[in-house]
What we know:
Oligomer: single chain
Structural class: alpha+beta
CATH class of the largest domain: Mainly Beta
Order of helices and strands: HHHEEEHEEEEE
CATH superfamily of the largest domain: Rieske [2Fe-2S] iron-sulphur domain
Strand content: 15-25%
Number of strands: 8
Distance between the termini: 48 Å
Amino acid sequence: MGKAGQAADHACDGLRIEASTRRGFLTVLSVLGLDLAALPALAQPASERPKEEDFLVSIESDTPDALALKDIPIGGPPVLAWPMDPASNTVRKDSRLNKILLLRLDPETLVGSTKDRAADGVVAYSAICPHAGCEVNGWMAEQQILECSCHYSHYNPREGAAVIDGPAVDGKIAVAKPFTSRVGIVPT
C-alpha cells in the first residue's frame, strides 16, 4: 500500500478503508444519498463534551426541549442540564461529566469575569466536584452557595464557583516558578 493509503488508514482511527475499496465506499454513500460532509453531523455521539452553540435541556425532561430563561428560577435552586446538539437534537447525556449546573442570580451580585460570562444573571458550571468527582447537588438557599454533598465543599457561584471551604481546598503545595537551573548531573 502506498503512503497515501497508509495515511488514510491511520487517519480513520479504527475504520479501515483500503485504497481499492474507497471508490466502492463512496459509490455506496452516493447511492444511499449520503454526503461525506454530513457524516460528522450524523455521528454525534451522546458522550461528546459540550460544544459551543449547544442548547441546554433539563436532566429531568423526557423531551429534548431547550431550556429558556423562564425555566431557571431567580435565586435558585440550580437546574441540572445536559448539552444538546441543535442540528441533530442529540442530547449529550452518555457521560455524567457532561452535567451542567445552571443558576440564575441577580446580575448585580456577580463578580469579575463571572459577570461578563453570565447571560441575564444565568451562570453555568460543571456539576462535577473537582475534589473527588461527585455531583455538586446541594443548594444552600440562605447563603446562596453550592455544596457537594459527598464531602461538603462549598462554592461561590457569584465568583466563578470559587471554593469557599471543604476538602476541595486541600492545602496542596504547588509550583510557583520553574527551576532556576538545569536539574540533574551537569555534563562536563
